[in-house]
Amino acid sequence: MSEIDYQRILTSIHRRLGSEGATEEDVRSGDVAAYIPELACVNPDQFGMSLQCLDGSVHSVGDADVPFSVQSIAKVPALLLALTIDPDEVWERMDVEPSGNAFNSLFQLEYEQGVPRNPLINAGALVLCDVLISALKRPLEELYAFVHALSGDMSVSWNERVARSERASSHRNAALVNLMKSFGNIHNEPDEVLDLYVRLCAMEMTCTQLACTFGLLANEGRTLHDGKALAPGVMVQRVNAVMQTCGFYDEAGEFAFRVGLPGKSGVGGGIVAIHPRYYSVAVWSPRLNERGNSFLGMRALELLTAEIGHTIF
Ligand code: GLU
C-alpha cells in the first residue's frame, strides 16, 4: 500500500464531510454529548483527521491540530499501562467480551457479579484506575508520563474544567464503582477511583497527537516517534482484538462491518483506528449518533478504508 496517496484521500474526505462547502453528505446530523455539561460547549461543526504511516509520514486535514476531549479513547492507554504492570490481575478482574449494552450499564454489572464485560466500558476502566492506584505511587502523574512516552509529546494533559464537570455529574459512574466495591472488585476508595477516572477521560489531544499515540498498536509495540518498544507484540495483538470487538459501545459490529479496523471512540467525538503494519488514523467531529459514536467520524473512516481498498479482513 506504499503507493497510496493518503493526503489526496484525506483531502477528498474533508471536502465531502467538512462543514464548509460539503456537498454530498448531511454534515449536521447528530448532537454533541451534553450529559457532561462542559462537553456541550464545543463548536459542533469542527472536523479534523490525521493519518500517520509507519514510515513517519503524517497526513492531516481540517481541525487536525485542535485539542479536544478524548474521553473513552483514553481507556486504551490506561489499559496498556495496567497490562504493563500486571496482566494477570487485569484479566482476572475483567472479561474480554463485547457488552452489547450501553457503556455505563448497571444491570449487566450486577447480573455478572461486579466483573466488567471488558476494559473499554466504564466499569472496566474504573477497575483499571483501581489497579493503577494500587500499583503506582503517583497514579495520575505516572499515567500521564506513560502517555507522554506513547505520544512523544510532553504537553499532553487533562482539562481540569472538563474533569470537574464530569465529577460533579458522575452519579452513574459512582453507582458502578460502588457496586463493584460491594462485590470486592474495587480495592481503593470509590472517590479516589472516580477522581482518577475523570482526569483520565478529560485527557485532551489533537487528532495528530492521537494518531501518533496509538501508532505503537500498528507498529508491533514500537512508538512511531522514537521507535521505542513500549509493549510486547502479544499485548498489542490482544489490545487490538479488544478494540475490534469492544471499542464502539454497542456498535462494534457496525464499525467492523463498515470500516474494518480495530479502534476506539469517545463521547468527545473522537475516533482512533489502526491498520496493523500500515497506519494509525484519528478523526474528530463532535456530533454523535444515537449510539454515542461520532457521526461523521464513522463515515470518514468508512470512506477511508473503502478508498484504500484494504481492511484487516
Ligand atoms: N467520561 C465518560 C463517561 O464516563 C466517557 C464515556 C465515553 O467516552 O464513552 O461517561
Question: Can you walk me through this structure?
Answer:
This protein has helices spanning 6-17, 75-85, 87-93, 107-111, 122-135, 139-151, 160-168, 171-182, 190-201, 207-213, 215-218, 233-246, 252-258, 295-308, and strands at 48-53, 58-62, 68-69, 157-158, 203-205, 263-265, 270-275, 279-284. By secondary structure, it is of the alpha+beta class. The chain has a single domain, classed as 3-Layer(aba) Sandwich (Beta-lactamase). It has a five-stranded antiparallel β-sheet with strand order 2-1-8-7-6. It has a three-stranded antiparallel β-sheet with strand order 3-5-4. α1 (6-17) runs antiparallel to α14. The longest helix has 14 residues, at 122-135. It is globular and about 55 Å long. The mean pLDDT is 94. Glutamic acid (GLU) binds next to loops.
The general outline is globular
CATH class: Alpha Beta
Q: Roughly what is the average pLDDT, rounded to an integer?
A: 94
Radius of gyration: 18 Å
Number of helices: 14
Number of strands: 8
Ligand types: glutamic acid
Largest β sheet strand count, sense and barrel closure:
5 strands, antiparallel
